[in-house]
Amino acid sequence: MIIPDESIGSNCYIHELKIHLAEVRRKERLFNMEERFFETFIHCYFIAFGVVIGGSIIGSIGAFVTGNAALTEIGRIAVQLRIWAIVAAIGGTFDAIANFERGIYDGSTMDLFKQALFILSAMGGVKTAILLLNWLTQEDIA
Description:
Layout: H1 11-65, H2 70-80, H3 82-89, H4 93-105, H5 109-137
Helix pairs in contact: 1-2, 1-3, 1-5, 2-5, 3-5, 4-5
């Protein structure tokens, strides 16, 4: 803590306080960015997981109502929902393309790397959901 000197005046104290506050804000922003990254990473995984599980199970109700094999339809629908689950998890294709563009043209490789990790997280959620459905239905899912 800096104590102002009466002979120098309080301008020195105010200047030092502004520098300290700027440093605290910078560290806070870095911490929040890391915190938001991990939150988004986990959200991408579970959103993709939920889209495949929920879409497959709810979609198989339609197959059951029409007289088709519901368990077979769960597997077929899960395979068809793979790409859409990834797109839904990363927030749509436009945001992903904008982040890739910023990473390539602006030289922000960290944004490019983060977006790639979000896509990998979503792909992991999709794969986990398909494996779980395969295990539950005992059907052969590609």
